[in-house]
Specification:
Layout lengths: L8 E2 L5 H26 L4 H29 L11 E2 L15 H24 L4 H15 L1 H12 L2 H33 L1 H11 L2 H26 L10 H17 L10 H26 L4 H24 L1
Parallel strand pairs: 1-2
Helix pairs in contact: 1-2, 1-3, 2-4, 2-5, 3-4, 6-8, 6-9, 6-10, 6-11, 7-8, 7-11, 8-9, 10-11
Pfam family, one: VIT1
Keywords: Membrane, Transmembrane, Transmembrane helix
InterPro entries: Ccc1_fam, Ferritin-like, Ferritin-like_SF, Rr_diiron-bd_dom, UCP035918_rubreryth/DUF125
Length: 325
């Protein structure tokens, strides 16, 4: 009976034929994953894609060796057994199904795949008594352990220092376009645009609970609006800015947080205590925005600070004057 998800086998209970079959299916899966990474990276990171092509070719060689060994020992029919059929067997996280994976995430997943495969072949070699099978599995364990060296060789062949620097720059640019830029725009909008309604309400009513409700409504409403606007106005195909839902999430969440930062102090019943704390929070938010602009957008810090702080001060003053009038 073919083991299924509801009837998982223990690794210790597998026969030597089933261990070989599991190794064959695992090599097939890993080769597909490496090729998937290669295809995903080819347009923007062709040198790294070539490295994954080489690693996929190695997995194909391992699979052929395993198939030949199975043919010589057990015949042509290979049992259908896969990772998910074995309890405790390492499983590949389906991250390769996600679009717009960061380059470093893909590299990290590849390293994890090699380490897990090495552990499997070491256990598999210990579980077999046939000398030829044990030798091949031991060789494959050594090959997986040596993939770092092989990856270094492929890197040297396909990815020189300048190319690596270019690919890293492209990856950083993609991160900024997908997460930092929309998040920064949201933080700026949430921090600045909610100043007027929050402080106008505060000075007009001097009721902290009413101010908190107005601030929460303004922050959440602005977050929803900014999130949908960011996701809807650009699908990222032509601009290369990445997944619209990621950008919308970054923009919406940061917009809400930017507004809630100076709305939350009004949970404090005392009006002036809450207002002073809210002003301090606004000051911190505005300087954080200036730092992010300087750190990721390469905007000179003094210019960023002047723009953000001046803009925030004007909006705050407008809210205070309207509320106080």
């Amino acid at each position: 009976m073919i083991p299924g998800l509801g009837n998982r086998r223990r690794f210790a209970d597998l026969s030597e034929q089933e261990i070989l079959a599991l190794a064959i299916s695992s090599e097939e899966d890993d080769a597909r994953i490496y090729r998937q990474y290669g295809e995903r990276l080819r347009a923007e990171f062709p040198a790294t894609a070539a490295i994954f092509d080489g690693m996929a070719a190695e997995e194909d060689q391992h699979r052929q060796l395993l198939i030949e060994l199975h043919r010589s020992r057990f015949g042509e029919v290979i049992p259908l057994i896969r990772r998910e059929h074995v309890a405790g067997y390492y499983a590949r996280k389906p991250v390769w199904l996600s679009a717009n994976l960061p380059l470093e995430t893909i590299r990290g997943e590849a390293r994890a795949m090699e380490q897990e495969a090495h552990g499997f072949y070491t256990r598999a070699a210990q579980a077999t008594s046939d000398a030829a099978t044990r030798r091949l599995l031991g060789d494959l364990a050594a090959a997986e352990a040596g993939h770092d060296r092989r990856a270094a060789e492929l890197t040297e062949a396909h990815l020189d220092k300048d190319t690596r620097a270019d690919e890293d720059f492209t990856a950083r640019r993609q991160f900024i376009l997908t997460w930092v830029q929309p998040g920064l725009a949201g933080l700026m909008d949430g921090s600045v645009s909610t100043l007027a309604p929050i402080f106008a309400t505060a000075f007009a009513t001097q009721d902290t609970w009413t101010t908190f409700l107005v601030g929460t409504a303004a922050s959440v409403g602005a977050g929803i609006s900014m999130g949908f606007t960011e996701a809807a106005h650009d699908d990222g195909v032509l601009s290369g800015r990445g997944s619209p839902w990621k950008r919308g999430l970054a923009s919406g969440v940061m917009t809400t947080l930017g507004g809630m930062g100076h709305a939350l102090p009004y949970l404090i019943p005392d009006f002036w205590t809450a207002t002073i704390i809210a002003m301090v929070v606004v000051f911190v938010e505005l300087w954080a925005i200036a730092w992010i602009q300087n750190r990721f957008m390469e905007t000179p810090f003094l210019r960023a600070a002047l723009q953000v702080v001046l803009g925030g001060a004007l909006v705050f003053a407008a809210g205070a004057l309207i509320g106080g009038g």
